[in-house]
Amino acid sequence: MKRRRIVILGTNVAGYTAAIELSKLVAGSHDVIVVANTHSFLFLPSLAGFPFGGCDEEDIMFDVRSDYARHSIRFVEADITHLDLDAQKIFTRTTDPIAYDYVLITTGALADGDYIPGFREHAHTLLGITAAMRTRDAWQPFLSSSGPVVVCVAQESACYGAAYEFLFNVRRNLMKHGLSGVVPLTFVTAEPAPAHFGIGGFHNTEKMCRWMLEHYQINASFSVSIRAVEPGAVVLGTGEHLRSRFTMIMPRYVGVDAVRNTDGLAGDLGLIDVDSRYRHPHHHNVYAAGAAVNIRPLASTPVPCGVSKTGYLSERMAHVAALNIRADIEGLSPIDHSHDDLIAMCRMDNGSLDFAGYDAGMSHPLWYDFSMPGPESQWALSTLWKYFPVKEKSVAA
Ligand SMILES: Cc1cc2nc3c(=O)[nH]c(=O)nc-3n(C[C@H](O)[C@H](O)[C@H](O)COP(=O)(O)OP(=O)(O)OC[C@H]3O[C@@H](n4cnc5c(N)ncnc54)[C@H](O)[C@@H]3O)c2cc1C
Question: Where residue 319 sits, what CATH number does that domain have?
Fold first, then answer.
């Protein structure tokens, strides 16, 4: 059989999973290459606690290069600028064009910094380590001056859990610094109900979340959009100005520049449409998985909500894409497994309690959730932060 070249773009949840999986599936018969602009795997869920000193960078990152070397995966560290889908080439800032037979795009997504005026200048976010560091750097000085805090999930966002976790961590941190009850805390979300997550909710989790918002005396508003962020205020879609000295917003995702700069690859927001095999609808040797994929909501909401793109979902998409690339090369039956049928799984830290939710499918009701109250949940959480990167690594063993 002709030797094929499979190139994976990105090396985080989806890219790393697919690379290790493919290297095992094709076992030396074909070439697996990873191209990414970093050699660090970053465990993004830990960023919600990062601004409060819950973990350090070294706890939540690891170097992927030795794993790739052990699995005979060639790793190219380079910033991708665009692809030429007809010529089947990847262009980077620092290398010669890289040819492929199959490409799997797992370059994730970025915060849309432009659709809410004033977001870049006057709000903090958690999308990426640099953004989380800036949020951490602003939080400590804020504690000495204080004032109202507003945490928002903006319209079309697809990252909900991190906003709830950040909110509950703010509450806990304020309490730790004797500011509980002194600093008004407000939560504003596009979701029609607590913990809706753009997928209709997590059964008991809605009740638990509602209870916590009331118990912690957090002012919460649902089905609200953000019109603008101003110095000292968040302007809601209703025109109301919410006073804010510290604003954290989870905005909508857009695709990375490399995807947006590629003709015929993605829609307006730079997110990639795929079929139930994770293939591009028109270029069948182009696959995509993870946050780079365009997922349409199954039901509309009064204020538009994106579908939550969790790490587990990204991992599952990568797994199915890897199997289908192998199937295509070797003439095996492909697997059709749309993201609507994949399991949504999430663990939410609320600063002192901890709860988890598992959903049977993105479009089905929740199977299971639980709450773990008490100080031991903090210990469990910090252990989890350290465990997950190790677990990811162990997949490569
Ligand atoms: C703050 C936060 C908290 C979260 N909490 C949870 C949670 O509790 N539970 C959960 O399940 N999920 C959570 N998620 C979601 C989860 O982290 C994502 O679903 C997952 O990281 C998506 O993985 P990915 O591999 O598709 O994309 P990413 O993790 O974004 O990885 C993209 C990769 O592509 C590379 N790349 C990008 N552009 C280029 C380029 N031009 N050239 C070369 N390489 C490039 C990047 O360096 C990176 O390696 C959270 C996300 C955030 C941001």
Answer: 3.50.50.100
